[in-house]
Amino acid sequence: MAEAPSTASLLPLLVFHHQPQPGHDDEMLMFSVPKQSLHERLMEHDHLAGGNNMSWTTPQGWMLIITKSSSLSSAAFLWNPLTGDKLPLPYISKEHDIPQQCKCLLSHKDPTHPACVVVLFHRTEPDMWCCRVAAGAAASYGGWRRYTYDIGDYELPESYRDPPTPRVIFGVAARQGKIYFTDTKETMGVIDFSSDDDPDFQYFNVAMVDYPEGMNSGINFLVESQDELFLVCVCFVGFDATNIGAIRAYKMDFSGEKMDSSEEQQACWRRVHDIGDFVFLLENCNMGASCAATPSGLKANWIYFMNSFIKDDATLCIFDLETEARDIAQRIRQGTDHLFPE
Fold first, then answer.
1. Burial class (CB in 10 A: 0-12, 13-18, 19+), 231
2. For residues 74 and 92, is the Cβ–Cβ distance under 8 A?
3. What pLDDT band is residue 262 in, cutting at 50, 70 and 90?
4. Do residues 229 and 222 make contact, with C-beta atoms less than 8 angstroms apart?
5. Segments in the chain forming alpha helices (H)
6. What mean pLDDT do residues 52-75 have?
7. Which residue among 109, 163, 274, 304 sits deepest, i.e. has the most Cβ atoms within 10 Å of its Cβ?
8. CB environment 209-221: b (16+ within 10 A), e (fewer)
9. What digits encode the pLDDT tens for the residues 81-92?
10. Contact present, 208 and 182 (Cβ < 8 Å)
């Protein structure tokens, strides 16, 4: 009988939750990008089994695991499925109960960095939860914190403005210890966790990229790679999410250009066709992960994402940045895709 492939040989993975039948518990499915294969029990582990555990993947390859308890608090830790390493986190009290419908990331690539923070953003509400990873720093920080942020309200037709609908953070990526997010068409936001006070929200001017001619809508993803900040735009023809017209990648130029001595430097997005020996994995909640291509047996400059913009469509799409060629690899059972880079 053929020997089962090792977990390492299957990385990177697109991990998503699938509900086999209405009313049934979700099951975790994993799609191996290099092997083009679907796995249901690839990482059958105590940390992922049972109805009491909640888990989130991060672009940094670690998973946040919370063991729900009937007591006043729940255990939490970071887990690296590849190495088996665990990093304990402070217990989560009932008042900071974290819902499953969040996206999670680390402020630093290395969670053992003394300033590293675990951050979760609610997908539909302006709420976030954060905690320092290092034991001493976590204690001085006061364990887990829940923070309701205010980045304004959605601009809706007048008949829908009462009550106002608070905006939530969508596109998000961690770079050099800070969390970047797409704010408006003219600004980007940055969240600084260096202080033990509440997170510090800062903003800088940068114009959002325009859609190509004939395309009026799309979905943007922020990705950190090699300490650079990238933006990937999946553009739709007109407003039809079933018709992808273009996929473009941009890199943030933080140096800006000075038009004259009196004008401040301003960051800008610059289109790129080369992201080095890396591939990008895009998640369905406007963020992505970068992983080395050659060690994973993948072709550099490729972008992978689940075409789950429309219900019941769950095909794996591949885009070559260099040639701009697109391909559909395999149709996968509908679910919610997540990231699990190497």
1. buried
2. yes
3. very low
4. yes
5. 7-10, 135-141
6. 86
7. 304
8. bebeeebeebbbb
9. 888 899 999 999
10. yes
